[in-house]
């Protein structure tokens, strides 16, 4: 027997969703990034738009088409992603940080291609930490309902709960990225949706289905309904 679908009306509400990787230049031809495909974030954008929300998708470089009805803002670096998010934040009701943001960037980007000839030994890249977009949103003056993701390879729940607490989030989706073929750069996912006082395990399913389940879980909390 299928549970009745909790159809919440997101009409008139605005989501900002970050998706994909960010990319930090080393020199004009090289960068630091990660394997994020953007699929989960794009699926969330599609599901939220389908449920009636206005959706702004702030996306790092991906190979994906823009979902129908979604307004997409393309960025490359973490700084650009933060700026784009801040610009849209005043009108935001729900923020979902799904991007795999590069935690570090190179302290000084070389203006010309780094040449082997100029170095007797491999160059030492000096890294500096990037701003935490999710944390800044959650601690902004009038914070939206803020949802994070936690990509973990060990101690999934404990690590995710720490992030929920530390970043002052309403909800976090804990993602085990240690399993080959799940999570990063794949079509399916399994996860635990955690909030301060609730826990919902989602079995392995497509990112499309998981997006619907996550938007649904947000609706239950946001509209404070019990199902
Ligand atoms: N995030 C962000 N800005 C950053 C780093 C992370 O907005 N500079 C967001 C991600 O989009 C995600 C959440 O924070 O929603 C958690 O990302 P994750 O990489 O799992 O956690 P970190 O806090 O970066 O900690 P660590 O990488 O050390 O596990
Ligand atoms: Ca990180």
Automatic annotation (TrEMBL):
| Protein EC | 4.1.1.36, 6.3.2.5
Q: Which residues bind CTP?
A: 97-99, 103, 113, 131-134, 149, 163, 167
Q: Which family does it belong to?
A: In the N-terminal section; belongs to the HFCD (homo-oligomeric flavin containing Cys decarboxylase) superfamily.
| Known catalytic reactions | (R)-4'-phosphopantothenate + L-cysteine + CTP = N-[(R)-4-phosphopantothenoyl]-L-cysteine + CMP + diphosphate + H(+); N-[(R)-4-phosphopantothenoyl]-L-cysteine + H(+) = (R)-4'-phosphopantetheine + CO2
Name of the protein in its database record: Coenzyme A biosynthesis bifunctional protein CoaBC
Q: So, what pathway does this thing act in?
A: Cofactor biosynthesis; coenzyme A biosynthesis; CoA from (R)-pantothenate: step 3/5; Cofactor biosynthesis; coenzyme A biosynthesis; CoA from (R)-pantothenate: step 2/5
Q: Which GO terms describe its cellular component?
A: phosphopantothenoylcysteine decarboxylase complex
Kindly list the cofactors needed. Answer: FMN; Mg(2+)
What ranges does the record give for the region Phosphopantothenate--cysteine ligase, renumbered to this chain?
15-227
Gene Ontology MF terms in the entry: FMN binding; metal ion binding; phosphopantothenate--cysteine ligase activity; phosphopantothenoylcysteine decarboxylase activity
The protein's role, per its UniProt record: Catalyzes two sequential steps in the biosynthesis of coenzyme A. In the first step cysteine is conjugated to 4'-phosphopantothenate to form 4-phosphopantothenoylcysteine. In the second step the latter compound is decarboxylated to form 4'-phosphopantotheine. Catalyzes two steps in the biosynthesis of coenzyme A. In the first step cysteine is conjugated to 4'-phosphopantothenate to form 4-phosphopantothenoylcysteine, in the latter compound is decarboxylated to form 4'-phosphopantotheine.
Q: Does the keyword Ligase apply?
A: yes
Residue limits of the DNA/pantothenate metabolism flavoprotein C-terminal domain? 10-220
Q: Which keywords fit this entry according to its UniProt record?
A: Decarboxylase, Flavoprotein, FMN, Ligase, Lyase, Magnesium, Metal-binding, Multifunctional enzyme
Describe which stretch of the whole protein the shown chain covers, with first residue, last residue and complete length: 179 to 405 of 406
Q: Does the keyword Cell wall biogenesis/degradation apply?
A: no
**Note accompanying the cofactor annotation:** Binds 1 FMN per subunit.
